[in-house]
Design a protein that fits this description.
single chain, about 130 residues, mainly alpha, extended, transmembrane, AminoAcid_Transporter
Length: about 130
């Protein structure tokens, strides 16, 4: 979010759309690679929807072409897109990987989570589960 706000302040919307497009292409391809790896390593797990492996493999061929073409035609945009993705690495290490955090860090993370939930209207009732209508 912070990187997006900074880009919006110093750049134009077209540039931001280019950054996000590259990030989306990259994430979609990595997701499809994960699907193929899971189908190979854990073939017996439950899947509500199962497709022929020819479909994701075909998608990956086109994905690789688009990604290589993007890297060739606009390497700076792709580099900035990768930098935007990599800004999440410290957040992962601080919030998820680091298990024995001091209590002050845990309180800060919990308050930021609560604030974000209230801001986005995603706070569950006091029971902890969503109410059914």
């Amino acid at each position: 979010c912070l990187a997006t706000l900074i880009i919006m302040l110093v750049g134009d919307t077209y540039t931001l759309i280019n950054y996000v497009s590259f990030i989306n292409y990259l994430c979609y391809g990595v997701t499809i690679i994960g699907l193929i790896v899971l189908r190979w390593k854990k073939p017996k797990i439950f899947r509500p929807i199962k497709v022929n492996l020819l479909i994701p493999i075909t998608y990956l061929v086109f994905w690789a072409f688009l990604l290589i073409f993007s890297l060739y035609s606009e390497p700076i945009v792709c580099g900035v897109g990768l930098i935007i993705i990599l800004t999440g690495v410290p957040v992962f290490f601080l919030g998820v990987y680091w298990r024995n955090k001091p209590k002050c860090v845990n309180r800060l993370i919990e308050s930021m989570t609560c604030w974000g939930q209230k801001l986005c209207f995603v706070v569950y009732p006091h029971g902890g589960v969503a109410e059914e209508e």
